Predict the structure.
Amino acid sequence: MESDGGKTIFEKIIDREIPAEILMEDEQCIVIRDINPGAPVHALIIPKQKIARLSEARANDISILGHLLLTAQQFAKRQELRDGFRVVINNGPHAGETVPHLHAHLLAGKPMIWPPC
Ligand code: AMP
């Protein structure tokens, strides 16, 4: 998993230390275009407060976790993703997590298969 011992790549994007295509932002989270898209629409919804991964969230993170999903919903509405969208959180190495900073992938723009693995 990516880590240089300091900030994650997503913290550097939040702090404007490295560029990214920012699609939405509010006080609690940032939405960026994935640099290596897996679908025509591939956004990452990233809480500004760092939680390494879903398995490390605590009960008092409930509002951040709810905000994450409502931001996904809002993004899908703004993008008019009427044919559907998928929200994915990779947790740990077997799930393909590469950045240790909680984020949800929102994928859309083509029919997708299930299960994904
Ligand atoms: P995960 O594998 O679930 O941890 O997802 C990390 C995602 O971050 C991958 O889909 C990467 O393509 C994406 N990513 C990594 N670096 C950047 C970056 N600088 N800008 C945008 N997306 C990135």
